[in-house]
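During the no-cost extension, the postdoctoral fellow (Dr. R.K.) reprocessed legacy sequence entries with the updated structure-token encoder. One reprocessed record is reproduced below for audit purposes.
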Amino acid sequence: MRVRSVHTFGLLCMAAFAMIAGTRAHAASIETLLMPGKVVRDHAKWESECSSCHDRAHPQRQTGLCLDCHKGIAADLRDHHGYHGRMPGAATAQCRACHTEHKGRDADIVQLHRAQFDHRLTDFPLENAHAHLACEACHKPGQSWRKAPTRCADCHKADDPHHGQFKQDCGECHSTSSWSGARFDHDKTHFKLTGAHTALACDACHVGGHYADTPQTCFGCHATDDEHRGSRGQDCGRCHVTSKWKTAKFDHLKETRFALLGVHDQIDCLACHRSGNYKDKIPKDCEGCHQADDAHAGRFGPKCDDCHGNDHWQVEHYDHAGLDHYALRGAHAKLDCMACHTGPVKTQKLPKDCAGCHKSQDPHGGRLKGGCDACHGENHWRSDIVFDHDLTSYPLLGLHRVVACAECHTSMAFHSTPKRCDDCHARDDAHHGGLGKKCESCHSPNGWRVWTFDHDKQTHFPLLGAHRKLECSACHHQDPGTVKTPTICVACHEKDDRHLGQYGGQCDRCHTVDSWKGARIQ
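Re-encoded structure tokens follow.
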């Protein structure tokens, strides 16, 4: 047993001596036999040379050996860039604290926890839309994590609508939230955007996304919009502004000696300059342009501005009283000019009295003296009659005041109307003319039954005693005027005479007018 142990020890010594004294290849194989495990596949080519990664005399120098190979990480640590340059304690940290080796060819020595990884420690913090992307969207399989591109164009070249025409960083215009809503400052270019240009899409000027050689003059872009067809030159800015084509600053009065007032300032230039050639002479008076629009057919002459304004054709106010010495009032103010002015104003002189225009409408046939305005108003012939009958030779009294004019005036020849009572009331005369024609002697115009006949004064037979209480018909058996009523007693009281006429017809010799009784012989 002891012999065997001695033999074994001898073999080991011989093996050790062989390794020490052998070639470098033999030494490498011994280190390989003593290492704790296989290194990862990327380090396999240095596996036989332990000194590439390990310093047996100074173990702390191992980090420096790592950085000798990983020069990019060494630069990050030196410049404080990248993840390794920004991680806490980077200056004193050892590589092996995070990256352990000899765990097999397929071991993960990076040991990156994606969910816990703070991308803000890298050179590319994830902001806005980038924060929601999967890692594989930027970090391609088989490539080092630190080799992921950091420039916009590196990832979005296919999305670049400018096709690489802009050399500056995309971030100067676009944000990480969205491609749209770019904030490009066009004022920094040679063409500052003003007015309507500020609201235009880029493609409106940069057709097809081509930015080189874009025209910077008005005519360069708007030649096809030029309504002047080049007749005004190519310096559009002389008249137009960038806010709107129609908002022109052309001083028409200064340039043409014709001020654009009212509607003229709002109409299109071609409405007057119809040929499109602004050098052609056009009229400057109203009739020159608006002859076809003249509703008066030239009757009022060429001075349209005497009545019309520049804002619209409708006449708002014409001083007919001041200019023509005839004020238009009432119905006259509503008439169309052509109703009176049937011919040219230069040759046609219109009358200024009522009869001059309304003679054919005069129902009185011109037989009434004085002007029509003595009775009629200017609003309406019939409703504005203000005739005062009291100023005539026949004032209207009593019931005559409420009688319609036509009741007495059977025709419009008012002067021939009768004035006596019996002329109108002959049919109503209960006396049949027996009491004469002076009806007003007894009757009142307030009514036929209202009468004031004084029998004592107006006849030769005063009513005394019992006679005063009698009705007229008691004595006047027939219509007045047909038979003369007797005045002696016996003429009425013959039937009442008890004396049978023996004492004659003078009853008042014995009797009184108060009663038959109590007769006394005188």
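Strands lie at 443-444, 447-451. Confidence is low (pLDDT under 50) at residues 1-27. The remaining legacy entries will be reprocessed before the final report is submitted.
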